[in-house]
Amino acid sequence: MSAPDSLEGSLSSSIGVSDDEEIVLREVNDLLSDLHTPLTRGVGLDSDLISDLGVDSLGMVELHDRLERAFGTRLSEEVLESAVTPRQWLEAIRTSRGALSPIHAPGHAERPSPSPSTRRVAGAPWPESARTLTEVLAWHSQEHPDLVTIRLLKGEYGEEVEEISYGTLARQAENVALALLSSGSTPGDRVAMMLPTGRAYFEVFLGVLLAGAVPVPIYPPARLAGLEDHLGRQARLLKNAGASLLVTVPEARAVARLVRARVPTLRAVLTAEELTTRSPASLSRVEPADIALIQYTSGSTGDPKGVVLSHEQILANIRAMCGAARVTTADVFVSWLPLYHDMGLIGAWLAPLYIGMPLVIMSPVAFLARPSMWLRAISDCSGTLSAAPNFAYQSCVDRIADSDLDGVDLSSWRIAFNGSEPVRAKTTEQFTSRFGRQGFAAESMCPAYGLAEVGVGIAFSPPGRGPHVDYIRREQLAREKKALPAVLEDGSTLAIVGCGVPLPGYDIEVAGASGDELPERFEGEVWCRGPSATPGYFANDAANAELWREGWMRTGDLGYMADGELFLTGRSKDLVIRAGRNLHPEDIEAELGEIDGAVRGGIAVFSGSDSRAGTERLVVAVETDLEEPKQRAELTRAIELRTNELISASPDEIVLTTVGALPRTASGKVRRSAAREAFEAGHLGKRPPPVSLQLARFAVSGVVPSLRRASATLETWCFAGYVWVIVGLVALPLWLAMLLPLSLRARWALTRAGARSLRTLTRVPLAVEGALPPPGQPAIVVANHASFLDGLVLILLSKDPLVFVTSTDLERNRVFGSFLRRLGCVFVERGNAPASASEVKNLEKVALAGGRLAIFPEGSISKVPALRPFHLGAFAVASATGSPVVPVGIRGTRSLLAPGSFLLHRSQVTLTVGTAIAGAADHDGISLQAELRDRTREEVAKLCKDPLL
User: Fold this and answer.
1) Are 493 and 506 in contact (CB under 8 A)?
2) Residue 117, beta-bridge partner list
């Protein structure tokens, strides 16, 4: 099986169709319209009507009849069992008319394989209609499997190159997906990835998506000195995400296992090399609304904030960014950015993956060791696009020697994105001046603004314009929150670099304390909205409550608008309020970084509480490598004087620390809030204990959680064992009693008494809200299907018999078949289109005779905690008989007994009966049936509180 065939297939096209093909496609589209099926891409001759478009067996019967009428021919019923694409229906029509003509599937003609390449011509196609990242991979792997998508630069100087083609990436990702499914992963599971930049990262990330699971990138420790703190943070993230697996490198596996004691959901810690054992399995179907990524923000500490992004949201952000940057297939992206960071993951990798342009990538460590490698890679590969935070551009200015630039040509560099942290006017000027000799154009520098909560980007500077620097009065901004233009550029002014204008489809406004939009040049909180804005943070209701205001997302950043462009001034939570003035730490930190002896980028300015005075204290923490007391005293004095010059006030306390002592985010930025916590706890600047002691303390701290986990597991096993014993004691006499010649009502009463006994003896809490219509009134009870226990719970709902509609698979079961027959169940053959029409007629007779049908229209249970699409049968019966549909929501049975498991967990079960929905008597109106189905599904989703899948 080739990679393209095993993935989601290429996007179909109906260009150049014949008259017959046109009629078939028209009838299919009309049917989908009547079924209220939303289309996000065109229907082609090779579209799968069942898996791609959601047409169920009754819908196929309707299509059969419509095509017979359209072509004036008779189609055999066998075609209902075999035809799943419009092309196969067309073949059957031509056969029935004796006019069969050869049909060849597009995209399978013999063609020479292209030679490996890392570059395409401008204007080449990309998967514009793809709805998911897996569809993007499938499209490219079919269209040009030999095209190189990633070039990994390895070795000390990037002299080793490993190329990965789309076809190879697709095959390896599929292997990972099958291995995950074989190991017990299910759709929706969260799989954490703590992997460095390398081939394994790309394969595992896409493999997780193909398995229907959700990748959760986390970062390895930046330094061993902070290992204990790092492990504690990662444990909190993994626990918040409910991660079931952690994939990491062999060297980190032993240490990573220490985290398991604190994360109850974590089943195993694996390496990428271990994701090779596989058994036959079907790859999960991935939907546009499925979660594609949980991206934890850099500042996540005790309150983890995992940004939830779906496939369609990520693709929406990629399309907007590529449009604003005028990206083409001829571009080449060069990156060293970490793949666990939004700018590196989405901006630098997934965007090139979508467009089909090559990504040339090196490890972040390689850049930090030798910044010149970044520029040389752009030169050697004729890179046109690259991105980095401001510190990287400054690092190039400060650390690259002239001798490292021999032969470097940067004239191909079209856009140099500068974002993720405050952009400094001085840095952009110095970088442009220094590397202009190598061909870097000033207008290529592109300051940008983004945040993980929207994917990555939300505002770009117009391509080819260069940075726009706004000089404003420092004092007016601090006291009046006004960004007034300055006449002179001196110590009393601030140089604020514009971050550009909103991307197409996105909006930005600056809001005041009351939430009203502020006029231009007034400082306030930046709010935004757009097609990729996250619905919220994963399992963090408190943070979600603060995220949205009246349809706008609060970014937590401060800034102002001027001439339609966004200018950032700082973070709202980092503001230091002193003597009625708002002080922005970023500005003070940047200025102090210019002092000799201070480490640029190693400075934190924050407010510390003064419990005695009841006021805020201004604290400045500075990293330095100076050791002589005299030199340190001179540095302290210089910091005091410079701070006084900037804000007309001296710091209340200056803390000098060793280089690397300040806590940092994954991207290397100083964490002010963590520095404040360390300062107030008396730990700031103190040398951390040895790594061995940190590991020992972390391991010991996990003993109590491990004991609690073991105790909970033992309690679960004991409860499950007790319940199954009770089930055996109740079920055996009940099964024997059902064989007696009793009336259906008596058999129902016996079954209900057995169900009530089980509930009483096992003490499972059950709450019932609402009631079914009284006996004698026709009704079709429709409920969600989350567990094998759902039928038993519905029995407790009604004193009078319900006629359950269930699969013939259960009728053939030796244990349950005879019991269900005696209970009066009606059996239908799931997925059999020819049988559907006659089965619906049988159900109509039951309903007209006064029987109250109970149906689970999802058809079967699933491990995914979401409400799947409903089949049409129940609603066809309701429309034909005029019976009302009674929606019922079942909550808690999935937790009590999960699909595929025999281990029971004590859980609250709730049954909620909704208001009956009238079924319009209409035998032939499939559109009315679909409308009733969709309305009922939405109501059931509200009652059971499951998301719609």
Assistant:
1) no
2) 147
Hey, what amino acid is at 199?
A: R
Largest CA distance in the chain: 103
Q: Which residue type, as a one-letter code, is found at position 41?
A: R
Report the alpha-carbon distance of residue 219 to residue 194 in Å, rounded.
6
Mean of per-residue pLDDT scores for the chain = 84
Whether 898 maps to a domain, the answer reads: yes
Identify whether residues 680 and 776 lie together within a single domain: no
Domain span at 940: 730-944
Two structure tokens written together for 604: 């934190």
Quick one: 214 and 340 in the same domain? yes
How many Å apart are CA 355 and CA 704, to the nearest integer?
A: 50
Q: Evaluate whether residue 600 is within a structural domain.
A: yes
For residue 773, give every residue at least 6 positions away whose Cβ sits within 8 Å of its Cβ, in sequence order, or none. Answer: 779, 852, 884, 886, 916
Distance CA 689, CA 333 (A): 42
Q: Contact at 8 Å (CB) between 522 and 483? A: yes
874 and 782, same structural domain? yes
Integer Rg of the chain from CA: 32
Residue type, 60: M
From CA 147, how far away is CA 356, in angstroms rounded? 9
Q: Which residue has the tokens 């067996």?
A: 57
Q: Please give the Cα distance from 932 to 874 (Å, whole number).
A: 10
> Within this chain, do residues 824 and 896 fall inside the same structural domain, yes or no?
yes
Query: Strand, coil or helix: what is 798?
Result: coil
Nearest to 55 by CA among 76, 81, 79, 37: 37
Percent helix, strand, coil in the chain (nearest 5)?
40, 20, 40
Q: How many domains does the chain have?
A: 4
Q: What is the pTM of this model?
A: 0.69
pLDDT per residue as tens digits for the range 708-766: 767 777 877 888 888 888 888 888 888 888 888 888 888 889 888 988 888 888 888 88
Q: Which of 274, 257, 278 shows the shortest CA–CA distance to 266?
A: 257
Are the C-beta atoms of 113 and 143 separated by less than 8 Å?
A: no
Where would I find the beta strands (DSSP E) of 818-922?
Answer: 826-828, 853-855, 885-891, 909-913
pLDDT at position 587 is 77
Asked if 174 and 284 sit in the same domain, the reply is yes
Mark which of 74, 96, 118 sits at the end of a domain: 96
Scored b (16 or more CB within 10 A) or e, 411-427 reads ebbbbbbbbbbbbbbeb
Q: What is the pLDDT of residue 650?
A: 81
Contact 175, 271 (CB under 8 A): no
Q: How far apart are CA 278 and CA 39, in angstroms?
A: 34
Residues 661 and 795 in one domain: no
Q: With H, G, I as helix, E, B as strand and everything else as coil, classify residue 161.
A: strand
With 0-12 / 13-18 / 19 or more C-beta atoms within 10 angstroms meaning exposed / middle / buried, residue 555 is buried
Q: Is 85 exposed, middle or buried (0-12, 13-18, 19+ CB in 10 A)?
A: buried
- As averages over each run of 10 residues, the pLDDT of the chain (949 residues) reads 37 48 86 72 76 74 82 75 82 70 32 43 85 96 94 85 95 93 88 94 97 91 58 86 92 78 88 79 83 79 82 97 95 95 95 96 89 95 95 92 94 95 92 96 96 96 95 90 84 90 96 93 96 93 90 94 94 73 79 88 80 66 89 91 80 86 72 79 66 66 70 80 86 84 88 88 88 82 89 88 84 79 83 64 81 86 78 86 90 83 83 84 72 90 81
Please check whether residues 815 and 929 belong to one and the same domain. yes
Q: Are 118 and 151 spatial neighbours (Cβ–Cβ below 8 Å)?
A: yes
pLDDT at 184: 83
Give dist(CA 63, CA 54) in Å, integer: 13
Pair 138, 67 in one domain: no
